[in-house]
Amino acid sequence: MIKYIFKRILMLIPVLIGVTFIVYFILALTPGDPVTIILGDQATEQSKEELREELGLNQPLLKRYADYMVGLLHGDMGKSYKNNLDVADQIMERFPNTAILALTAILIAMLVGVPVGIISAKHQNTILDRISMIFALTGISMPVFWLGLLLVIIFAVNLRILPSSGFDTSSIAAAARSLILPGIVLSVNSMATITRMTRSSMLEVMRKDYIDTARAKGVSERVVTFRHMLSNALIPIITVVGISFGNLLGGSIITETVFAWPGIGRFVVESIKMKDTPTVLGCVIFLSVMFSIVNLLIDILYAFVDPRIKSQYKLK
Amino acid sequence: MKSENLLEIKDLVIKYETSDGVVHAVNGVNLTIEKGTTLGLVGETGAGKTTVAKGIMGIVPNPPGKVKSGEIYFEGEDLLKKDAASMRKIRGNEVSMIFQDPMTSLNPVMTVGDQIAEVIGIHQNLNKKEAALKAKEMLEMVGIPADRSIEYPHQFSGGMKQRVVIAIALACNPQLLIADEPTTALDVTIQAQVLDMMTNLKNQMNTSMLLITHDLGVVAQICDNVAIMYAGEIVEYGTLRDVFKSTTHPYTEGLFGSIPSLTADVKRLSPINGLMPDPMNLPIGCKFSPRCKYADDRCRSQAPVMTQLSATHCAACWRAGKEEN
Questions:
Q1: Checking DSSP bridges between strand B208-213 and strand B176-180, what pairing results, if any?
Q2: Chain B residues close to A212, C-beta within 8 Å
Q3: In this complex, how many residue pairs, one in chain A and one in chain B, have their CB atoms less than 8 Å apart?
Q4: Which pLDDT score is estimated for A228?
Q5: Angle at the Cα of B229 (from B227 to B234), degrees rounded to 5?
Q6: Taking CB atoms and an 8 Å limit, are B108 and A220 in contact across chains?
Q7: Mean pLDDT in runs of 10 for chain B (325 residues)?
Q8: CB–CB of A139/A108 below 8 Å?
Q9: Which residues of chain A make contact with B90, given a CB cutoff of 8 A?
Q10: pTM for this structure?
Q11: Rounded to an integer, what distance in angstroms lies between the CA atom of residue A150 and that of residue A130?
Q12: Are B33 and B58 in contact (CB under 8 A)?
């Protein structure tokens, strides 16, 4: 098991090389000159040339990439073109906000999605099932910005019970209040996916022979549902929860924009607009590491949920 | 109610109501199992054998399955009139069931010890530790070392899984054991072992058994009485000797005809022509008539009634009792 985890961590290296390579070249090939963006249109040709020299931009692309990678190995993500601040510091300043929002959203999504999925499966083809599936379909199809604005109008503008934007960290209660609306909005898509996956996974397990065995033992319906059905239906549910959470950690551009959330999603978009290569690269690398770690955690979690997977890991 | 009958099924009708139509799975079955005896329920795939078993256990999947009418007396009480909670007390405790396919009838994410202990924990007043201990005893009893109780089903072979299933079924010393093709999924040597073990355990615990199978060899080996089932009906019923020696129903005859013989020099087997009728669309009259070589107009228009041939033997055929085979 430990050997397996170690192997998986080693596998991160080629992933990261690939990610940095692609992002670096895409940014270099897109039109727009960072020097002009930094200095403005009025700058003289000479001052531009000086800045280019200073930033190392007049060197060949591959050389620049190699230099960047060497710096990265030393833990240096470079400095932002925009404000000359350390990229790593800027990411670490914003990431906790995104992480808290993502965690809130995924918790809401799970706490609603899994029970609704179970109820839906247990009452397949009844009115309850239909209602839950309509709810899930709506959740998947609804545009996030529309729901976000709608909730802001209802709860912040009209009812005035929740803040409309920002992350107020002055107290825990204030932080919790500012998390409610963006958390709900961000959770809706994942919630719908989790509901549908829970339902279909439960339906598949419900027809297995071991459920008959459990019933034949005289086990109560509640225990049949949770111990025998749900624990066998968990793998696909964990998978979608994991993927959703990985995506949410990358920050939601729309939700963060609607709620003026000081998170990483908005930060990346602003940096791309500024052609701030070091910042964009730093963010992308950081997020791919995060995504890979979440993936690894899910794979490890599989082993605890399913003993068959655990014994496979032992062989690897 | 006669007191020596442990189980008495009267006119049991079970249907599956699907969107494509109604499946007539069990159509008026009557069966009796006396205490300490074994009844073999024999029939082709799709004859409704498993549905009868699930009907007794009260686990017919609903929807789409429904027990339409009939009575199932177990120790004088009608199981169909009991509520869910009291049925749960009977299931796994007084009546238990071994399922067809050991490969899929164990929960893959629970250790076998836990799965045996679960049934013990429900029905006997034991704490977790005692139940786990009893589960280990049960494992030893079916010939699996107790220290394997912490292993998962995927770590066992098919024959061993079936032993675990049997251990679960026998853990609470049931009065009635329903074994639904317990050996079909196993290879022949393991089959013999499992059957021997079941017979021994049954004798030790004085359990009655309903053995569902399509293997007449297995029936001859361990059953006292035999019921032959066809298209949801019992077509012949009697003691082992009655059914094997004075076979009456043409379907039973056909079943024996399709078994290879070690002694007679026969070039070809004589299978029963045709297929089982579609249970959504059963033929009028005798359900076996389309495949029966003796069938006449009456057979095709009028369903035969059960004819008593002797005190223990009866068959549902118009020819029964009229002419000797």
A1: parallel
A2: 54, 59, 99, 105
A3: 82
A4: 92
A5: 70
A6: no
A7: 74 88 88 90 86 89 83 88 88 89 90 93 89 91 90 90 89 89 80 82 85 87 90 90 87 84 75 82 85 84 85 86 57
A8: no
A9: 218
A10: 0.83
A11: 25
A12: no
Assess contact for B34 and B208: CB atoms under 8 A.
Answer: yes
Q: What is the pLDDT of residue B264?
A: 73
d(CA B291, CA B275): 8
**Helix segments in chain A, DSSP class H:** 2-29, 34-39, 45-55, 61-73, 87-122, 127-141, 144-151, 172-206, 209-216, 221-223, 231-249, 253-258, 264-273, 277-305, 307-315
B109 close to A (CB below 8 A): yes
Question: CB burial class (10 A; 0-12, 13-18, 19+) of residue B294?
Answer: middle
Q: Which residues pair with B233 in a beta bridge?
A: B230
CA distance B164 to B143: 9
> How far is the alpha carbon of A280 from chain B, nearest alpha carbon, in Å?
44
Q: How high is the pLDDT of residue A245? A: 93
The pLDDT of residue A316 is above 70: no
DSSP A44: -
Cβ of A307 within 8 Å of Cβ of B118? The answer is no
| Contact assignment for B91 to A215 by CB distance below 8 Å | yes
User: Residues B117-138, buried b or exposed e (16+ Cβ, 10 A)?
Assistant: bbbbbbbeeeeeeebbbbbbeb
> Do A218 and B168 count as a contact with CB atoms less than 8 A apart?
no
Q: Do A307 and B104 touch (CB under 8 A)?
A: no
Counting every residue written for chain A, the total comes to: 316
Q: Tell me, what amino acid is at A101?
A: L
> How far apart are alpha carbons B299 and B319 in whole angstroms?
9
Q: Which residue has the tokens 């799970």?
A: A110
Q: Strand B65-74 vs strand B5-18: parallel, antiparallel, or unpaired? A: antiparallel
According to the model, what pLDDT value does residue B323 have? Answer: 55
Q: Rounded to a whole number, what is the largest CA-CA distance in chain A?
A: 86
Distance CA A106, CA A187 (A): 6
Amino acid identity of residue A178, one-letter, is S
Chain A residues whose C-beta is within 8 A of a chain B C-beta are: 125, 208-210, 212-221, 227-228, 231-232, 305-308, 311
- For residue B178, the cross-strand partners are B97, B210
CA distances from A213 to A117, A310, B97, B99 (A): 23, 24, 8, 7
How much is the pLDDT for B100? 83
